[in-house]
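Render this sequence as a predicted structure.
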Amino acid sequence: MGISFTVLSSGSTGNATVVRNEDTTLLIDAGLSAKRIDELLKERDLSGEELDGILVTHEHSDHVKGLGAMARKYNLPIYANEKTWSAISNAVGQIADDNRRILETGATREFESLRVESFGISHDAAEPVGYSFYDGSEKLSVATDLGYVSDKVKQAISDADVLVLEANHDVEMLRMGRYPWNIKRRILSDIGHLSNEMAGAILSELLTGRTKRTYLAHLSRDHNMMELAKMTVRGAMEDRGCFYKDSEFRLCDTYYDRPTPWDKVSEP
C-alpha cells in the first residue's frame, strides 16, 4: 500500500492532515472543531475510529482547536514534545495519562511499518516541528508555519517524494493589507510564515529529481491566492535556474474548506 495522505484543511482558519499506510493512520494537527474534522474525514471515507493517534506541530489554535475533543472522543494518543505539551495543556483539557505521549524534536518513532521523524522549525511557538514519514523507500515531508527554512530543515525534507510546504503570503499583498504593522512584521520575520517567493527559492534548492509533487499549504485568505502562489513559486524557481516539465514535477493545491484527494506517494 505505501504512504497515502490527504490534507483535510490548510490555512489560518484550521489545519489537519491524515497520513496512513497499511498499518497506521495518523492525524497531523487538529486545528478545527472535532465536528468539522469528522465531516472532513467522512468526505475521504474515513472515521475517527480508524485513527491511531494525533501528531502535533505546535500549540497555535489553528493547529489544536479540536485536539482535546478528538482525543477524548476516540481515545487517541497525542504525540508532542515536552514544551508543546506545556503550551497546550490548558487548551486541550483533560487527557488520559496513557494518551499523553512524548515525541521529542529530532526523534524518530515507528508506528509499525510507518516511521515518523520530527524536526525543528522556526516559528513563534514553544517548540514547533515538522514531520517526515517513511515506508520503505517512500518519503513524505510536511513543513508549514516556517519563518525561514534552515539548513537542518532542508536536510530533513530533502529527497521527499512528495512535500507539503508552506506558501503563506504574497509579500506585497501583505504589506498593503489591513493587518496592523506589528502583525505584518511578525509574519515577515524569521519566526513568522514563508512567503511564495521564499517557498520557490527553497524548492529550487531541493528539487533534485526525486520530488514529484509539492502541495502549497497554509495560504493566507487575506494575502494570497492559489494561482498567484503557484505562479510566484514557479517564477522564483525559474529565476534561480530551476526549470521543470509538468510531467516531471507538479505544484498542487490545498484548501481551507475541503480536503485534497487521496494521494499515493508512490504514484508518479
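Summary. The radius of gyration is 17 Å. The mean pLDDT is 96.
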